[in-house]
Amino acid sequence: MLEAFKDVAKIGMGAIWLSRENLKKLTDDLVQIGKASKEEGERLFQEFDKSREEYKKKLESTVADAVKRALNEAGLARKVELDELRRKIEDLEAKLGGQAKPYTGPDTD
What we know:
77% helix; 109 residues
């Protein structure tokens, strides 16, 4: 059972990386050698292409989630979070209108 699962996973991963053009050529070749009718070849292409896109989106989502988890575990901020903090600082500086003293580092008292 595990081997069958591995084979299906490998096929799915291969479908992700198979370009649309290569996929079309593959189905056209099946039609040309008589293993599928023109309609079957087109239907097969559409199904493969749809599956390829779905797998690609799932993989992208999985990778993005893994990166987010890794950043959170490492305690690193994402760019969007830093940009939001910068915007808040600029807003506060504008409200203070130059009343704030510039930061000179940690106190050495």
